[in-house]
Known about the structure:
Blueprint: H1 2-41, E1 47-53, E2 57-59, E3 63-72, E4 84-90, E5 96-103, E6 108-114, E7 122-129, E8 142-149, H2 157-160, E9 166-172, E10 177-178, E11 183-191, E12 199-205, E13 210-215, E14 221-226, E15 234-240, E16 245-249, E17 253-254, E18 257-264, E19 269-277, E20 286-293, E21 296-304, E22 309-315, E23 322-329, E24 335-343, E25 350-355, E26 359-361, E27 365-373, E28 382-391, H3 402-407, H4 420-424, H5 428-441, H6 448-452, E29 468-479, E30 485-489, E31 494-498, E32 506-510, E33 516-521, E34 527-533, E35 543-546, H7 569-590, E36 609-612, H8 622-629, E37 633-638, E38 641-647, E39 663-664, E40 669-672, E41 675-676, H9 680-684, E42 691-703, E43 706-716, E44 731-736, H10 752-755, E45 765-773, E46 779-785, E47 791-801, E48 806-816
Parallel strand pairs: 2-8, 10-17, 26-48, 40-43
Antiparallel strand pairs: 1-3, 3-6, 4-5, 4-7, 7-8, 9-11, 11-14, 12-13, 12-15, 15-16, 18-19, 19-22, 20-21, 20-23, 23-24, 25-27, 27-46, 28-45, 28-47, 29-30, 29-33, 29-35, 31-32, 31-34, 34-44, 36-42, 37-38, 38-39, 40-41, 42-43, 47-48
Amino acid sequence: MKIILHKFLVAIIIGFVSFCFTAIPTFGQITEIKNSYARFNQNNLHEKIYVHTDRSFFLCGQILWFKAYLTDAASNQSLSLSKVIYVEVLNKMNQPVIQEKIAASGGFGSGSVLLPFSLPSGNYELRAYTNWMKNFSPDNYFKKNITIINTTRNLDSTAVHESIKYQLDFFPEGGNLVNGLQSEIAFKINDNNNKGIDAEGVILDQTNDTITRFKTFRFGMGHFYLNPEAGKEYTAIVTCKNGTSIKKNLPKAYNAGYVMHVADSGLNDLKISVKAAGLQQREHAAIYVIIQNNRIINFAQAQDIGNGDAILTISKDSLKDGVSQITVFDADKNPQCERLYFKRPKNKMVVTVNADQKNYQLRSKVLMSVATTDQSQHLLPGNLSVAVYRLDSLHQSRSENIFSYLWLSSNLRGNIEDPDYYLSSENAETGKALDNLLLAQGWRKFDWEKVLQNKTPAFKYVPEYSGHIITGRVTSDATLPSGREAKKPVPGLLVYLSVPGRRVQLKGCISDSAGLVHFDMKDFFGAGQIVMQTNNGNDSMYHMEIFSPFSEDYSNNSFPSFYVPEAESDNLQKASLGVQVENAYHEKDLQKLANPSIDSLPFYDKPFKTYMLDNYTRFTTMEEVLREYVDEINVRRKGTNFRLMTFNAPAFPFHDKQPVEPVLESNPLVLLDGVPVFDINKIVAYDPLKVQQLEVVASRYYWGPITADGIASFTTYKGNLEGFTLNPHDLLMDYDGLQKQRVFYLADYSSDKELHSRLPDFRTLLYWSPGIITDKNGAARFSFYTGDIPGKYVVDMQGISANGEAGSAGFIFNVEK
């Protein structure tokens, strides 16, 4: 008995030791993957943008209004990191036709775009991103298809007579097909309008034997199962609803590899099965399953797959809401399979919009009330935007909203047809359709190589957390050993950037090793010019350039084909007439701009003294002005060259304990309309009758890397450097700052005079506001007037709470004659 017990204990000990020697490396691999992933994503914040536009269909001459919601991708909470949002309209060649810089505050920004008549009719892409988002794939930018019609040009015949083309693609679950292992294969059939097509198909082998049949489920997507055999090739024959036939080969199957299948029990469990075939057998072979959501690992487990099969069952409670990425690694930490899973979010802002009535007369007042709560009907303050526009065959209500975008669309590839369908209700049908969508448009492989090699991500672009950053470069001529001329970066050089105008905007930066300079331009609004220069009195001739802040990376999303049915001719003519009437009678109202709320003080704040030259006897030379009136500046001349010296105000009266320089020997920083003038002779020769005021700082001043022995800031009447010639080596260029806000025109028929006015009101966009804020009781109100066009009108509202709960609402009312 003792001998038997002894042998039993020995077996247990041997088994335990064996387990330790196999389990410890396995645990170590999991820990290593998790630690590598955490290090890679440390301080790696990701932003996400949703843009609410007033409509999706426009005519040239109309204004496109929008509001951008900037959020933390991990929580959907509003994010105030970036203060600038870049908005572009791209044509089908990915060429920007409109570019705007929008100021953001607290995670929100709004703006507008006047669509010029220079644009040809077609489908365009509206996209938005921040400077920080340029460090990552353009697939992460916000993108939306819009249609623009130019009614002043005849439509191309191809736009009127549509030519339908079809695209068929297959997506094996996890990534690859492996011979001898059954795989689920998703498929998608869509036309060149990015619309899913109803179809049926059959899979044939190379001998034309039927292997399986399949058909679409929703939006041209579906799935089937296939167990490929070595030596066989498979072809799909698909017949579309209109009779068109498509033939396409299935993806190649490999002789060795892994397949993964994820099954949702419909209750609270998720089953992940992994099979392997054709691999070199290892004792105690393991796989590692990692599940991450928004770059945070929520689940990590090792599983033995020595017999070629591994099954994991996990609770959905361990996963975060939204899209999770499931990755399977082999024993050598190489990613082998990957797919997405979606857990329906629980937190949503419920937006309720009501009007004081359902039917209105022409030119009558509409009163709207808004309420925002959470899903438990608790009061929830929200920040919202709203558009009210006429519904017709041209303008349709949207299927995308902020909730479906933040939780679903932003994590998938390509255009999603009716994304709200997947989240509007939870049942077996929507669950099946959602899984097809994730398989067909969700496979986006993460770059695990950089993660596992513990490479620190290099970020080229910094977040603009103060204001717009202008980036430039300074180079000099250089001759290479080959004799070829080249541009050599100039490091360590103080470079100035200024904005000519009555408001002084001056920045300085010392160039880095690559000759790059970056200027943080806080509160820089409107179109104008900028000047980039060096101190030409001290420096040689340099070449200077300014880079575009807009992204030059583009996603591979396909544009839907452009098609306008002939039956829409009358509707387009009426819409065009409405645009012409609106621009003819309300052009000034439509172009009204709001003054941005900015600090107008110069960087030196309040000067020591201000001289309004009209208050003095006018002299004809600047030398006389400075000598006779400006006590703080001493003018000296040596030969033909002038120099200025600033009397140091803190030195008068003299301090007993700490002596202060009575006179600052170097030239002060001289500014003309905010632009530095380093050649004192040029400012002395400038016509003083063009100068309105002079501000003097009578002490040494430090502004970033700029050190000034006093400041003399001259401002002309026009603020445009009138008659002054810059140094030929200075870079002067047109440059648009942040967009100034356009004021939305609201018709007002509260008076009898306006009510009975004979001026036509053909507005189809009755109301737009990016600033509907519900109070602590979750309530808000707004109002507007109808116009002269009867029909159905939709109220489209989007918004988000401070905690990241997103929501939307719609309301339809009638306008009758």
